[in-house]
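tokens incoming
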């Protein structure tokens, strides 16, 4: 194969990989947005149930009303559990897109040190941020990367949020039971 043919083949492969990189970045944004949409959906639903439960508590007049209000905290507890699982899957898929992107960036040479132009800025650095490269190098596989980061950072805060909602559900249930037995 001649030099020109090798160069053309290489260009075609680069074009394919650049297109794959674009698609992967779009997927990454999509799954992060879907993760955020699920957080919004579940928090809105739970907040509505909390408001309805407390509104019902204010208007309750007989014991049967108080017992009926126990449905609210039980729903909060159940929906919070579903929310943790539902948001986890989207965040996991987001991390999978990051690992796909990282592999394509390596193939394209975006993680290698560059010497683009004389007197250019940061010539001894790769195009990809050093912080991103270091976070990837700690792991032997993309599976370990995903497993590690699926429990940290942004999603960890999401899990904490829904655990707080679960706590609200438990405390509300206990409070309603005590309040019903006192009256």
């Amino acid at each position: 194969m001649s030099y020109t043919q090798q160069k053309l083949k290489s260009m075609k492969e680069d074009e394919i990989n650049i297109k794959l990189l674009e698609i992967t970045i779009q997927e990454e944004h999509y799954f992060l947005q879907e993760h955020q949409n699920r957080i919004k959906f579940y928090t809105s639903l739970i907040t509505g149930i909390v408001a309805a439960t407390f509104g019902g508590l204010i208007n309750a007049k007989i014991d049967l009303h108080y017992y009926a209000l126990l449905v609210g905290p039980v729903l909060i507890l159940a929906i919070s559990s579903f929310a943790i699982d539902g948001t986890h899957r989207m965040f996991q898929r987001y991390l999978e897109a990051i690992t796909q992107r990282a592999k394509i960036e390596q193939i394209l040479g975006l993680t290698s040190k560059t010497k683009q132009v004389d007197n250019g800025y940061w010539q001894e650095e790769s195009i990809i941020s050093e912080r991103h490269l270091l976070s990837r190098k700690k792991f032997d596989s993309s599976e370990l990367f995903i497993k590690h980061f699926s429990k940290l950072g942004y999603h960890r805060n999401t899990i904490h949020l829904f655990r707080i909602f679960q706590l609200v559900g438990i405390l509300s249930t206990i409070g309603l039971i005590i309040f019903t037995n006192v009256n």
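note: Residues 3-59 form the longest helix (57 residues).
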